[in-house]
Amino acid sequence: MPGVRTQVRKQVDDALSKMQQKLVPAGETRYLTLPQEGWAGDDVRKELERLANLDHTRWEDGYVSGAVYHGEDELLQLQTEAYGKFTVSNPIHPDVFPGVRKMEAEVVAMVLSLFNAPPGAAGVSTSGGTESILMAILSARNKAYAERGVTEPEMILPETAHTAFRKAGEYFKIKIHVVACPAPAYQVDTRRVSRLVNSNTILLVGSAPNFPHGIIDDISALSKIALKRNLPLHVDCCLGSFLIPFLEKAGFETTPFDFRLKGVTSISCDTHKYGFAPKGNSTVLYRTQALRTHQYFVDPSWSGGVYASPSIAGSRPGALIAGCWASLISVGEAGYLASCTRIVGTTKKLLERIHTSPALATELDVLGAPLVSVLAFRARSLNIYDIADGMSAKGWHLNALQNPPALHVAVTLPLVKVWERLAEDLEAVVEAEREKERVRVAEGKKPRGAADGGDTAALYGVAGSLPNKSVVVDLATGFLDMLYKA
Fold it and tell me: GO terms for molecular function, please (predicted)?
């Protein structure tokens, strides 16, 4: 109706205006055309320094959930040096840049070894977890077409699986079956997965762990289904990356997740998360070389010559590969084991604080039994998004979730140093929100109550929420447009 449409448009415009004030602050000098004369190097460096220090959430002080996983000066300096030596390099020309080809192959080999890959296993490096997931799904789709003639492909994934799987479904025209991950375990319902398998199924999916709640799906059960039905099984270890392979050695509880399970045919692992490599690095691993071949693109008849590409990109930044290789070689197995001990140990301390703190234990419920570095919690009587806003006001950048409404914390090395401050601030915010509720009741107003998720949606990567799900697509689209507002 016209009247409703006007109100909705106003709501969208108001929300976007508030976002713009934060993302595109007034008073900034805008560079919208090339300068008539190029700047002197010192002038460029001065502006770069200013831009680097624009007001931002203090990731350097550990106030960010995820996003920056290492950030120490010594490794950053080493990565910068590696980048500088290979700035112009491009793996599409291995004869011109043989060092990059060698480093990329070695990065893949090192990650394959971490995940107990069998002889004959293979992999590629990618630009990030999303591309790794896209490549694994493309391989499965092409395999199903080549071997079974499947032209209407379908895949089955947990509702908590990263949304990159849904993106792949849209990109590659694959029908998606989303399976519930019910409380209290919040793992995918494997019986439902088994019932959904049909002749068009090309892939099963599990997470180790998932992004929202930090829960590892029952990969052993999924492996059995995959073997019984002769289907590929992809395990998304992008978030677990260089932590989950070290859980056992660090003395923490773990569960089977890698190539030691015979049904696991592919794994995605982000080297740019707990592998501490520069952003823009990930890997996708396959049980066999033949599976990797299904993701290749080869054009033998192009007028420009035979063209062959291992993944989506053609030209790729060899400098990032060099930074990744330098990171893995520099940290080494002992370094990653020590990081796992610190990061997962801190996660368990934070879990214990939530379970035992008088302020938190009566209000917050941890979702499932997280084993790695991410924990999520929901509120029993308060609005969890009000708690998110309260933490944001104290300088924290946490991740708001939906379905169910919750918050999560991804513990990183910077956050390890300040986790007690995080817990103290969370206690203070919960108490403050309780007091607000008491005041509302005393004034005869209706309490805000717990968020039910019916009218509010969380925005990925932002400690806050969108006000109304009926306008969420318009708001999210406007948000993306705003990212490119100069």
Answer: pyridoxal phosphate binding; sphinganine-1-phosphate aldolase activity; transferase activity
Asked if 423 and 62 count as a contact pair (C-beta separation under 8 A), the reply is: no
pTM higher than 0.90 for the full model? Answer: yes
As a whole number of Å, the end-to-end CA separation of the chain is 35
The three-class DSSP label of residue 235 is strand
- Type of residue numbered 293: T
Cα–Cα dist 242/238, whole Å: 9
Task: Over range 290-317, report the average pLDDT.
Answer: 95
Whole-angstrom CA distances from 467 to 396, 455, 474 are 20, 7, 12
> Which DSSP symbol is given to 188?
-
- CA dist 474 and 274 (Å) reads 34
Q: For residue 363, report the phi and psi dihedrals to the nearest 5 degrees.
A: -115, -35
C-alpha 147/C-alpha 143 separation (Å) is 6
Looking at the DSSP assignment, which residues form a beta bridge with residue 157? 178
Q: How many CB atoms lie within 10 A of CB 107?
A: 25
User: Quick one: average pLDDT of 336-364?
Assistant: 97
Q: What is the pLDDT of residue 448?
A: 83
Q: Give the whole-angstrom CA distance, residue 191 versus residue 177.
A: 13
Cα–Cα distances (Å) from 486 to 54, 269, 287, 482, in that order, read 15, 34, 45, 9
CA torsion 474-480-485-486 (nearest 10°) is: 170
Q: What percent of the chain has pLDDT over 90?
A: 78
pLDDT (tens digit per residue) in 362-383: 999 999 999 999 999 999 999 9
Residue 436, both tokens = 């607000």
What is the DSSP pairing of strand 201-207 with strand 233-236? parallel
Quick check: helix, strand or coil at residue 304?
coil
The dihedrals phi and psi of 132, each to the nearest 5 degrees, come to -60, -45
Mean pLDDT confidence for 69-83: 92
Instruction: For residue 407, report the phi and psi dihedrals to the nearest 5 degrees.
Output: -120, 150
Apex 375 CA angle, 369 and 381, nearest 5: 90
The whole-angstrom separation of Cα 181 and Cα 203 is 18
Q: Report how far apart, in Å, the C-alpha atoms of 178 and of each of 79, 157, 188, 330, 401 are.
A: 39, 5, 10, 40, 17
Cα–Cα distance between 50 and 56 in angstroms, integer? Answer: 12
* Alpha-helix residue ranges (DSSP H) falling in 295-357: 318-356
| DSSP-derived 3-state class of residue 310 | coil
Write the burial class of residue 367 (CB in 10 Å: 0-12 exposed, 13-18 middle, 19+ buried). Answer: buried
- pLDDT (tens digit per residue) in 393-419: 999 999 999 889 999 999 999 999 999
